[in-house]
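Quick one:
INPUT:
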C-alpha cells in the first residue's frame, strides 16, 4: 500500500486543481465567497428548507447593488436578496463574510439599515442570513451559515 501513497496524493492534488479550475471558470469576475453563498441559499430555497419559512415562493435570488443612496452616503450592496411571489417583495437578505467568526448582531443592524435606506419593498417578515467560514456569533435573530453548511 505504501507504493500507492504517492499516486493517491497526486490524484488528490489533481482533483483539487480540477475543482479550483471549475470554480474559477464558473465564478470568474465575481466574489467566490458571495456567489457560493448565493448558490447555497438558492439550493435551500429550491429544496424546500427555506421555502417553508416564506408565505410565497422565492422567485429570484441574487445580489443587490445601488450606487448611491444619497449625495453623502456610501453605495448600498447586499450579497443576497430573495424576492417572493408575484409582488417580488424582499423576503430574505444575506451577507457573506470570509472571516473565521462574524457577529450577526453587527451584520443584522447593517442589513436592516441598508434595506431601509434603499427603500426596498419587503414582505411582512424578512429573514436575515449571515455567513462566515467557521462561526456566526449572536445568531439568535438570523439564520447562520458556515462553510461546513455549504460544503458539508
Amino acid at each position: 500500500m505504501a507504493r500507492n501513497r504517492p499516486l493517491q496524493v497526486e490524484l488528490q492534488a489533481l482533483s483539487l486543481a480540477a475543482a479550483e479550475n471549475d470554480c474559477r471558470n464558473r465564478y470568474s469576475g465575481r466574489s467566490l465567497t458571495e456567489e457560493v453563498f448565493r448558490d447555497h441559499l438558492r439550493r435551500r430555497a429550491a429544496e424546500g428548507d427555506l421555502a417553508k419559512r416564506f408565505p410565497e415562493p422565492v422567485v429570484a435570488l441574487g445580489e443587490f447593488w445601488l450606487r448611491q443612496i444619497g449625495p453623502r452616503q456610501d453605495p448600498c450592496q447586499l450579497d443576497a436578496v430573495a424576492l417572493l411571489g408575484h409582488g417580488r417583495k424582499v423576503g430574505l437578505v444575506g451577507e457573506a463574510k470570509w472571516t473565521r467568526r462574524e457577529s450577526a448582531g453587527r451584520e443584522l443592524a447593517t442589513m436592516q439599515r441598508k434595506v431601509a435606506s434603499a427603500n426596498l419593498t419587503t414582505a411582512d417578515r424578512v429573514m436575515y442570513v449571515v455567513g462566515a467560514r467557521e462561526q456566526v456569533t449572536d445568531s439568535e435573530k438570523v439564520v447562520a451559515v458556515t462553510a461546513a453548511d455549504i460544503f458539508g
